[in-house]
Each structure stands twice: as C-alpha cells, then as structure tokens.
Design a protein that fits this description.
Bound molecules: adenosine-5'-diphosphate
Strand order of the largest sheet: 14-13-10-11-12-15-21-19
Number of helices: 17
Largest sheet: 8 strands, antiparallel
CATH superfamily of the largest domain: ATP-grasp fold, B domain
Number of domains: 6
Structural class: alpha+beta
Distance between the termini: 75 Å
Number of strands: 35
CATH architecture of the largest domain: 2-Layer Sandwich
Helix content: 25-40%
Length: 624
C-alpha cells in the first residue's frame, strides 16, 4: 500500500481523500494557499505545506510548488482531486518523473480524451455511438456553416478544448450561425487558448447520463453503473442521482457496455467518467444515447455512485494506483436503492445566482445524511475559489423517498449571513415533475420563476418571527414590544420587522423551535425552508442582507470593478432603478435603488476597483 499521499487540492475534495487515506493508514499531506490556512482540510491532514497566495494560478495550479512540497514531506504519491491539475497530462508526467505515484489517469488517456474532436474520432473507431456532427479540420466559417446546415437546426457549436460548460453555443436558425460562431470562438480563445470548434446536432429533450468506470493496471475495466446529471443550470450540474430514472436493463447494459469499450480504447486506469447525452423525447432508448466526452478523473458527484454500490471510490483509486487489481469484478457489483446529491452553493438566486462570499457565522446541516463539505461554522467563503459550501447526499430504497429526503435536507440547511441556493434546491427536489422523474437539461431553465424563492417572507415566517419575539419578551408575553398590542393573542395581527421590512403578521400558535433560531448578538435570524430571515420588533433596523444596509446605502457585496454608473449625485430615482453595475467573479451585478428617493452620495466611478463592503452609492428616501 501507498505509505503517504499529498493531496493537490483543497476544500471538500481534500477532506474526502484524507478521510479514506486515513482509514487505510496512509499518511496525508495537504497543500494550501495563504487564505486557506485555517480550513478544516489543512487541520485534518497529518502535515500541511503552504504553497503560495490565494489566487489558484499562484498556488494550487503551480506544478513546481506542489512537487517541491511533495519532496519536502517525502510524499510517496499525489492525488490531484478534481479540477485544478487533475486532467493535466504534463503534471501527471512530472509527478511520475519525480518518482512519485500518480493517483490519476494515465497521461496518454488524458491527452486522448482532452480535446472533444479527437476524443469523438477515437470513440467512433472503438464502436461507441457519438452525437452526429462535424469534427473536421476545415474551420472556415463557410465550411462550418455548410456542415451545420447539413446536420439540420438546431445545432450546438462546441469549443474542441472546452470544459466546464464554457464554449458552447446553441444555434436555432441559419441567420444566427455566424454571430454565434464568432462569440464561441472568442470565448474559446480567451478561456482555453484554442478557438477550434466542432458542430453537433442539438439534442432536444436532452438528458445527461454518465457512467462511472474504473480500470486497473492489469487490463481490467468495470463500470459502476450510471448517474443522471440532467438537472443543470447553465450547463452546470445542480442535482445528480444514481441510477438514472426510467433506465431499463437493456438500455443500461448498452450504455454501460459502451462506456467500458470507451475506457478500454484508451487503456484506461483509475477512476473515469464517460458522459453521454440522451434524446429522452420518447423515454430512454439504447439507440438514442451518444458519447459526449470522458472526464479522466474522479467526479464531484461520485458519492451517489458510492451510495448505490456501497463502495469507496477513493479507496479504489488508491488500491489501483498501488498496483492492485480492481477490488470487485463486474458480476460482484449491483445497485442498491436510489441516491441523490445536491450542490449547496454560496450564491444568491435572487440576484441571478451571483456568488455570495463572506463569513459563515452560522452553518448547520441536517443530521442523518452524508454531507461532504470543505468549510465549517465560523469559517468563510472566499471569492478565490468555487463557492460550493457542501454536497448534500441522500440514499433511500426508492427514488420518491430519496427526492423527499433531499427536499427535507435542503430545507433544513442553515447558513448566515452568506446567501445560498438551499431554498432553490429544496423546491427543485420537491417539484412534482422532478419527483415523477420527468427531467431533462432544460428543467431548471423552464421553471426558474417557480424555483427561485420569493424575496419576501411568507405569512408563516412572519408569524413565527412574531411568536419568537413574543416568547423572548422579558416583561411578560407581549409587554415590552414596540408595535405589539398589549393584549395580543395568537389570533391577533401584530407588526414585526423581517428582512428589513415591517410586516403585519398573525402570531403563530407555537414559537419556532430553538434550533431554527440564531442570535448573532447583532441580530436574530429565523430559518425556514432553507432561507434565513433577520427579524426583530419594528424599527429595530435589521438589514435585509448583503448589498444594502437598510438606510439606502449600497455596499459592494464582493470585490469587483465598477463597469457602469447610470446616475449622478442629486438625481431622483425610482424604486428598483438601476444605479450602477459591478463586475465581480466574471459576472455583472446591477445595483438597484432600494426605494424611491434621491442619490445623496455617489462614491463610485466607472473603472473603479472596489473591495467588499465599500460604500458605492447612498439613496435618501423620498419624503412621503
Ligand atoms: P463541458 O465539457 O463544457 O461540460 P459538454 O460537452 O460536457 O461540455 O456539454 C455540457 C452540457 O451541454 C451537457 O451536460 C448537456 O447538458 C449540454 N449538451 C452537450 N451537447 C449537447 C447536444 N449535442 N445537444 C444538446 N445539449 C448538449
């Protein structure tokens, strides 16, 4: 067995690998950036080495620094996790050249699968069905257009070097083609340094189905069944599950067989995933599932496969890297029940899912399910890395039970003051069509409105907040409360301030459970259905959360650059009017007037770099 391992990654994946390595008696070494020094994965490793400043390109993405740390700590192996250097063939080679064990895919397989066009050509040769399309070397716009016409609209333009949902353009009609091609190429050149594209038929009612495969150094390859990752937002996975809903045995054996052939075609070793796209317009059918790409690493969503197979995939990786044969034969693997995973992100659905970074003063997860998380209460979500807080993983005998468990779990999440997608996840998991298994990749897009939680508290939340204030009052049930009637009883309406606004609410018969309340000292927060609501007696001046302070001052919610200012000092503005636009983490966020009034202070100019919490503009309310 491998005596020691350095994990060239951070957060939940580093913790995940440490957990298994420790159980196997392997010494673990973490590497981390400055800002990650206090993260749980650093503490949990047997040793830790700081490899540089926060930006990943100065720390986690620098092969020399990682190799130097491995040398200094006498590590025997390197596990790259996922993301970062996990699919970097040069790094894999450098690790092996340094005499270390690489717990990852063979460099030749990474290269063979690295470019989408070459990978597809190779799969065609191996008899794996691929999406119909054009993979040719002739990249002239005329040729690409002619090929798109021949495939038939709609088509998908894909950057051959693309990944992570970038460099994809759907084109519905001939007249949009050239503009889409231009913008796809620009994005591909900027993101991947390669502007070549391929054209694919755009599959309608597409489902994303992927197969977990494993190969060993003795020439064996097995699959661990499929996962369905159709629930996506902007081509990024949100909820994953295993097995795939509506999968019959014949279709399963066809695609899992194709996945094994794909892995064999590149002499695959270790954990890999073959991604397929299915045309599910008439249910899943073996002749309507096509190869999309192979990910030559462990996937974020591997826990759902672990849940249904009862296997530890990191243990499999470590055993295979040590030269052992696959732990199980194909006929020893079976599916047990149903598993789902939801990705809990520090992001705000109300602002178009902009990342919401900052302190995690409160971070509570439901008990009784698997949580893979890289952060802990009193930690922080920094703007430097992926803003995922945790993966909520449930396992149940049947799919409806798993969906119900996931909805409950997401609804029970408590995070403050950072905003999360928990309420959004809870709504998605409880959606009737989702529960019925009627999913495809446009599911979320079609129901964004229904899935985004309302910005205002429900009458139940207001009632609970009122009851919490009442129960907490020192001078008898309702005595000292501004705005509360002295003789208020549960059937009475009272005023209560929730999320910065005063509401009239009927006091709930029962006060909220203490576990759903959080008192930061500065404010009290009530958690319900995945959302936190700051509340108090009226006029307590509780802020509505990030961005506003309640008095009309708009602060930068995260570090960024001002790209437009639409108002001047002294200007009258209406509620919701756009004041300025901040670009942060490659996304634009419009800052809106919280109420009607005048621009009393304007502290930002187009082009300014601003840090989090900087006052940008202050609106003075109109006298009414
Ligand atoms: P990336 O490498 O950037 O993740 P993929 O090729 O894996 O790109 O595609 C990402 C997502 O785009 C898929 O999960 C699927 O939802 C959608 N997609 C890809 N190819 C097609 C296609 N031919 N038709 C319809 N949707 C597609």
């Amino acid at each position: 067995m491998i005596p020691s391992i350095l994990i060239a990654n951070r957060g939940e994946i580093a913790r995940r690998i440490i957990r298994t390595a420790r159980a196997m008696g392997i010494r673990t070494i973490a590497v981390h950036s400055d800002v990650d020094a206090a993260m749980p994965f650093v503490r949990e490793a047997d040793e830790a080495v700081c490899i540089g400043p926060a930006p990943a390109r100065k720390s986690y993405l620098v092969p020399e620094k990682i190799l130097a740390a491995a040398k200094a700590t006498a590590a025997a192996a390197i596990h790259p996790g996922y993301g970062f250097l996990s699919e970097n063939a040069e790094f894999a080679e450098a690790v092996m050249a340094a005499g270390l064990i690489w717990v990852g895919a063979p460099p030749a397989a990474i290269r063979a699968m690295g470019l989408k066009d070459a990978a597809k050509a190779r799969m065609i040769a191996a008899g794996v069905p691929v999406t119909p399309g054009y993979l040719g070397a002739d990249q002239s716009p005329e040729r690409l257009f002619a090929e798109a016409e021949a495939i038939g609209w709609p088509v998908l333009i894909k950057a051959v070097a693309g990944g992570g949902g970038k460099g994809l353009r759907r084109v519905d009609a001939a007249q949009q083609f050239l503009d889409s091609l231009d913008s796809c190429r620009r994005e591909a050149a900027a993101s991947f340094g390669d502007d070549r594209v391929l054209i694919e038929k755009y599959i309608l009612s597409p489902r994303h189905i992927e197969v977990q495969v494993f190969g060993d150094t003795h020439g064996n390859v097995v699959h661990l069944f499929e996962r369905d990752c159709s629930l996506q937002r902007r081509h990024q996975k949100v909820i994953e599950e295993a097995p795939a809903p509506g999968m019959d045995e014949a279709t399963r054996s066809a695609i899992c067989g194709a996945a094994v052939r794909a892995a064999q075609a590149v002499d695959y070793v270790g954990a890999g995933t073959i991604e397929f796209i299915a045309d599910a317009s008439e249910g899943l059918r073996a002749d309507r599932i096509w190869f999309m790409e192979m990910n030559t690493r462990l996937q974020v969503e591997h826990p759902v496969t672990e849940a249904i197979t009862g296997q530890d995939l990191v243990e499999w990786q470590l055993r295979i890297a040590a030269g052992e044969p696959l732990p199980l034969r194909q006929d020893q693997l079976a599916i047990d029940g149903w598993a789902m995973e939801a990705r809990l992100y520090a992001e705000n659905p109300a602002t178009g899912f902009l990342p919401s970074t900052g302190p995690l003063d409160r971070l509570r997860f439901p008990a009784g399910i698997r949580i893979d998380s890289g952060v802990e209460e009193c930690g922080e979500v920094t703007p430097f890395y992926d803003p995922m807080i945790a993966k909520l993983i449930v396992h149940a005998p049947t799919r409806p039970e798993a969906a119900a468990k996931l909805a409950d779990a997401a609804g029970a999440v408590q995070v403050w003051p950072v905003k999360t997608n928990a309420a959004f996840l809870a709504r998605a998991a409880a959606d009737a069509d989702f529960v019925a298994g009627a999913v495809d990749t446009a599911f979320i897009e079609r129901r964004t409105e229904q899935l985004i939680p309302p910005p205002d508290p429900s009458p139940e939340v207001i009632g609970l907040a009122a009851a919490a204030i009442a129960a907490n009052s020192e001078t008898g049930p309702w005595g000292a409360l501004t705005g509360f009637r002295a003789n208020a009883a549960p059937e009475f309406c009272v005023a209560v301030e929730v999320a910065g606004h005063i509401h009239d609410g009927r006091i709930a018969a029962e006060p909220p459970a203490p576990a759903s309340l959080y008192d930061s000292g500065a404010e009290r927060v009530l958690f319900a259905a995945g959302t936190g609501w700051a509340f108090g007696p009226p006029t307590a001046g509780h802020g509505g959360g990030s961005g506003g302070t309640g008095d009309g001052s708009l602060l930068a919610p995260m570090p960024g650059r001002i790209i437009a200012v639409d108002v001047v000092a002294g200007q009258a503005v209406s509620k919701g009017q756009k004041l300025l636009v901040l670009e942060a983490m490659k996304m634009e966020q419009a800052m809106l007037a919280p109420f009607a009034g005048t621009v009393a202070e304007l502290k930002a100019q187009a082009g300014d770099q601003v840090s989090e919490g900087t006052l940008l503009v202050r609106v003075e309310p109109a006298a009414d």
